[in-house]
């Protein structure tokens, strides 16, 4: 039996946790594509395990499959020079500059990426952040009691293409002008920025400190367990990618909205309409400022709103959505790496 090992950027995914669809860590079913990849290889007589299992197995790896580039990539490339290595490159240079070292890319047999300008079907192959599409979505404007939300982590970057700061500008605008129409969710905001590092009994002392040291966002409502369930309660969601104007970089942020029937206010790659029809979302770039955008949203009737939803559902059921499905993700890796 062949043994392929999945190399991840964090121990969080090891012990085969990335394949455990019943785990509490499997928020929004993000592990499902990897579970299906493992099952499909198993049917072909190939064992896929996380890299920590390599030390336990007696057999030399048949291949290493990297999901982005870990800190110790140089050591691994040297130690396994004779082993075929493949790379799934998902994070942008805004998040991980290490992954975009093109000299390092020559050490991999094949690289799978969303980046349109690299895909040549020889070394670089098209792959996207994989999604799971349901049979239907919740339609209509009337049943959505809340107006607008943002679900995002509080991060920062000095990269010129980052959109983290634009998220903050959107939050601050709503808090100043229409706080009743906006709710913020995610990790790292207000006192939640300390929750991974402090025991629960200490967190109650953190709130005053947070207010003194960091920007405090009154619209923050905490973390959520399931993004799609939360989005079903809202008419609109501010859905900005981590970076703008990087062709092909389309993540779950826009799909979470589509799958929830929530209309996204989207900002991402410059060529977004090459991949997703413009009728499916509201393009933030179409507005000069947030006041203009807000007026547009407030003036929308139910018929117009439903057209956005219907366009999104038509897209999800059509051929242009297939490259974003877990089925495409699995089929591409199986075909190009082999069995």
Structure keywords:
single chain, 339 residues, alpha/beta, Rossmann fold, 2 domains, six-stranded parallel sheet, five-stranded parallel sheet
Give the SSE map:
Elements lengths: L1 E6 L24 H12 L2 E5 L12 E5 L5 H7 L5 E5 L12 H4 L4 E4 L10 E3 L19 E6 L12 H14 L4 E4 L14 H4 L2 H8 L13 H5 L2 E7 L11 H9 L2 E5 L4 H4 L6 E2 L6 H9 L3 H16 L8 H12 L2
Parallel strand pairs: 1-2, 1-3, 3-4, 4-5, 5-6, 7-8, 7-9, 9-10, 10-11
Helix pairs in contact: 1-12
Structure commentary:
31% of the residues lie in helices and 15% in strands. It is of the alpha/beta class and 339 residues long. The protein folds into 2 domains: 2-127, Rossmann fold (3-Layer(aba) Sandwich); 146-186 and 224-322, Glycosyl transferase family 10, C-terminal domain (Rossmann fold, 3-Layer(aba) Sandwich). Strands 2-1-3-4-5-6 form a 6-stranded parallel sheet. Strands 8-7-9-10-11 form a 5-stranded parallel sheet, sandwiched between helices. Helix 1 links the parallel strand 1 (2-7) and strand 2 (46-50). The longest helix is centred in the C-terminal third of the chain and has 16 residues, at 302-317. It starts with a strand and ends with a helix.
